[in-house]
Amino acid sequence: MTLRTIETLGDLAGTTVLLRCDLNVPLDGDRITDDGRVRASIPTIRKLRDAGASVVVMSHLGRPEGAPDPKYSLAPVATRLAELLGEPVAFAPLDVARSELSDGVTLLENLRFDPREASKEAGERAAFAAELAAKGDVVVSDGFGVVHREQASVYELAQALPSAAGLLIAAELDVLDRLTATPAKPYTVVLGGSKVSDKLGVIDALLPKVDRLLIGGGMLFTFLAAQGHRIGKSLLEESQFDTVKRYLAEAQERGVELVLPTDIVMASTFSPEAEHTVVPADRLEDAFGPEGIGLDIGPETAATFAAHIRASKTVFWNGPMGVFEFPAFAEGTRAVAQALTEVDGLGVVGGGDSAAAVRALGFADDAFGHISTGGGASLEFLEGTTLPGLEVLGWQTP
User: Fold this and answer.
1) What secondary structure, in 3-state letters, does 325-375 show?
2) Where in the sequence numbering do the catalytic residues fall?
């Protein structure tokens, strides 16, 4: 079987489409601080509206513990959806009857306000899915960020009614397939973020396929410490020493260039105003002694990483290079992002913190080949894991 797309659902005029999106956006009170996922949902909603369908949009937001919680309400998302669509968006509780739904676009309240959405019991999820199914005729699944979850609106609902993937899922799969099955060479993967343990699966899966692996972010200090370097109070996963040593050895055996930073921005404390300086990667305690903490890759490393990225035909980046939320420690991440916009080929920002970083640093989404909305789901796909929310739409993991 192949992935079922919207076209497989036939004529949608006069139907009600239940559209599962991933609108799990960051909020500051009732202000959306990054609306990337909302904007990513717009093309599919417009396609369904143009086909003559009413659309009931569904999503979760945060972790509200299976009960209504005002701070996790999707009400601000309904307002933003209406602005982006240029048409009214009704906002309705989960128990709204089909007869009360708008003929246009409706956004249901947070699915996780019902504990059955994310229940470990398949029967409970199926019961909730049946209640959702009663509100529509067909299901379109378009939240790539949740396809790795067996949840009622992702898995059971897609079995309860005729179902297909939306435009966003189709686009994500096309890009991820190009990263795994047919990457143009040279192929560079850039990994950052805080922990090596978060990236084990993706390193194992991609190391045999890439030409170059660049390591930044908090995880770099575990690599340096495993090589015997003192790292002050920088992030460390001592339990991963054997793993990173294996990666270093395997990269050498495969002819993969595993590039570690040569300089680091060390700070006196974890603070946006902290005193800081650049030191060589093998002398991190020269600046602030054992109390110092590494908060970004240094300028020499940033220039090296950028040159490697620009020289590549395929680049996948997941994880910031430093604490980009603090301006003094954002330059490494900025340099990687800028280089990714200059790739003569496919440059992919791997969602999550990386997507938040490029937007916070002022880059436009269309400056990149692709910004994934997938986060953990994208990483699991790259690892070769079977994702239930795709499998139920006919997709088979290669």
Assistant:
1) CCHHHCHHHHHHHHHHCCCCCEEEECCHHHHHHHHHCCCCHHHCCEECCCC
2) 37, 195, 352, 376
